[in-house]
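hiii so um. not sure if this is the right channel but i have a protein structure encoded as tokens and i wanna go backwards to a sequence. like what aa goes where. can anyone help
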């Protein structure tokens, strides 16, 4: 069996005395669209932040692409990765947030070429060519020279996706990417994500868009209070939830 893209084994995370993740076990397979749903405060963002090296877990094991997050294992002992090594690992993971946080003083094109040039050392011409292809892919080739303030929220979010893709990640994390958008702009962003899924990208998507989860998702985990309450194929969980907490949540978002 091939190693999953993400493997969490009894992952615990606390902020001070507040336990936020209370033993998360899950696996995200390669090429899968993995939907993470649950009420506000259940620990979804924290879990994504742990995967992306933005938080350290307190107990358990978390692997991305077969490697322990934050550590190397030598002779049965764990050694914390140096900042430089963490930065290298993080390049392989793209993240898209609820708020678009593009660089406001850069055009769409510059937002996308920044990291490939500065971090990966690509030539400017090369990075621009790639950025134009990505803008084409997200339907915004004509907005290359626009600044974020000259784009709608949905367009900014599509640029943010293109910017993440420019680093050629092996895993994309989406944290409620459409929650801050006006309803009429949600569809364009979901279409881009659907296309990305069809192209085979491994994606973890925190979302309240159950239509997307049902149509595009390969797996769905329902989290509440820092634990996985239930999981399965999205259609299965959404049509036939086994737990009262899942039913209560779904009755609010469906
Ligand atoms: P979700 O994304 O599911 O809404 P979060 O992961 O953002 O949940 O938060 C889970 C819990 O952790 C919440 O109770 C939140 O207040 C708490 N929390 C999140 N980040 C921090 C932090 N940096 N310091 C202290 N508590 C935090
Ligand atoms: Mg969140």
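sure thing!! here u go:
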């Amino acid at each position: 069996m091939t190693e999953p893209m993400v493997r969490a084994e009894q992952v615990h995370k606390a902020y001070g005395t507040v336990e936020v993740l209370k033993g998360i076990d899950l696996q995200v397979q390669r090429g899968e669209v993995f939907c993470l749903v649950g009420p506000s405060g259940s620990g979804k963002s924290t879990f994504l932040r742990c995967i992306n090296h933005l938080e350290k877990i307190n107990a358990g094991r978390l692997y991305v692409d077969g490697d322990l997050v934050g550590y190397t294992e030598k002779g049965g002992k764990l050694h914390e990765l140096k900042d430089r090594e963490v930065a290298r690992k993080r390049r392989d993971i793209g993240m898209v947030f609820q708020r678009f946080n593009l660089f406001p003083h850069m055009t769409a094109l510059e937002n996308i070429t920044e990291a490939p040039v500065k971090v990966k050392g690509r030539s400017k011409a090369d990075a621009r060519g790639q950025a134009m292809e990505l803008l084409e892919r997200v339907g915004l080739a004509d907005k290359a020279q626009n600044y974020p303030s000259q784009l709608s929220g949905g367009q900014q979010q599509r640029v943010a996706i293109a910017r993440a893709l420019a680093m050629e990640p092996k895993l994309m994390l989406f944290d409620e990417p459409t929650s801050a958008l006006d309803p009429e702009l949600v569809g364009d962003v979901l279409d881009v994500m659907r296309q990305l899924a069809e192209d085979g990208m491994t994606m973890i998507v925190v979302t309240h868009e159950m239509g997307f989860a049902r149509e595009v998702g390969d797996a769905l985990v329902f989290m509440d209070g820092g634990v996985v309450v239930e999981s399965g194929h999205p259609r299965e969980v959404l049509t036939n939830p086994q737990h009262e907490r899942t039913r209560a949540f779904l009755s609010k978002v469906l």
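oh and The pocket of magnesium ion (ligand 2) is lined by residues 44-45, 175 (CB under 6 Å).
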